[in-house]
Amino acid sequence: MEPNTLEIARGEVSAAGNTVLEVRDLKTYYRTRLKEKVFAVDGVSFTLEEGKTLGIAGESGCGKSTLSISLMGFYFPPLHYDSGSIIIGDTDIMKLSKEQLRKQILGRKIAYIPQAAMNALNPTMKIIHFIEDIMKEHRPELDKRQVRELATERFETLNLSPKVLDSFPNELSGGMKQRTVIAISTILNPTVLIADEPTSALDVTSQKAVIKLLKDLLAKQFIKSMIFITHELPLLYHVADEIMVMYAGEIVERGTSQQIVFDPLHPYTKRLMGSIIVPEHGMKAQKLAAIPGAPPNLKHKIVGCRFADRCLYTTDACRQGKIENRTSGNRVYRCHVDPGTLKEWYANEEA
Ligand SMILES: Nc1ncnc2c1ncn2[C@@H]1O[C@H](COP(=O)(O)OP(=O)(O)OP(=O)(O)O)[C@@H](O)[C@H]1O
């Protein structure tokens, strides 16, 4: 079904397809020791379609990790939920109790691989014991032999040696540990997998193996969709079907990976991606560009565009009221300037 214009304008729908996750106007904040609220996720809305990988890009501190943690619906101080919905299937998980979340959602519907996940494994437990613990909670009808059979089959299908099951974490290389964490985290076939910098701190060969594993999980339908966060632009471009760009707690643009990298609309995306005339092979070493200045302090109420202090094209209009989303074809971006004018400005920069 085609999304209607209003839905797109709210940034709630990006593409036709089977929606597996819908986030509506989500707001979450850190409470500081001085009792101030830092809204690191401030009115985020988006959908994720079955079979798709959605990348999240943005400078350090723009809220990517907070958004991904927030999507689990499970909050530990200093992070708090303020408002909004996280809908998986027919369930708004924010309406569930912590117990319901733990039993019905975490690991089953949504799984999260945090930064440096591989270092979080308890070194005194063999890999099979992590899987047994998960199954005890979620598939109590299975005995130990059945759990081992299931784990062996899963590891073999993912081209991981079943011998790993009888290893301790510190007997595995960094890359193998990371792949093992991913295999364990997805053993219940979650609808959505969130991978936050899953390849950072790995050598190039291990990075490739992790990416292949993630793609295999999708292709073999052990997961239905993925949210992928990385600072590595070429990696994001190659892994993600679509990219959302975050700035100061808001989504400022969403489009296909091709559009975001090579034809950005929002001035923040434009700066973040550097020059749009980048031949693909030249992207290999490219990271997200450093932009002069710093994002606004989220402790304070911000009026107008959050990027205004760093944008090359700021006018008085940018500093007034709330900046609403605009649409251009399948794309949504949060800037009051029309696409034609933006493209003209960017063309002049390159002239
Ligand atoms: N414990 C905390 N207390 C207060 N503010 C915090 C806390 N943790 C993060 N923040 C703030 O929340 C905002 C978003 O941080 P977050 O780590 O989500 O960004 P990020 O885009 O994931 O960065 P990175 O790419 O470095 O992981 C930042 O302004 C950060 O300073």
From TrEMBL:
Pfam (any one): ABC_tran
- State the InterPro entries in the record: AAA+_ATPase, ABC_transporter-like_ATP-bd, Oligopep_ABC_C, P-loop_NTPase
TM region positions: none
GO MF terms here are:
ATP binding; ATP hydrolysis activity
ATP-binding listed as a keyword: yes
Q: Which residues form the ABC transporter domain?
A: 21-273
Per UniProt, which keywords does this protein have?
A: ATP-binding, Nucleotide-binding, Transport
Q: Which GO terms describe its biological process?
A: peptide transport
Q: Which family does it belong to?
A: Belongs to the ABC transporter superfamily.
Q: What is this protein called?
A: Oligopeptide/dipeptide ABC transporter, ATP-binding protein
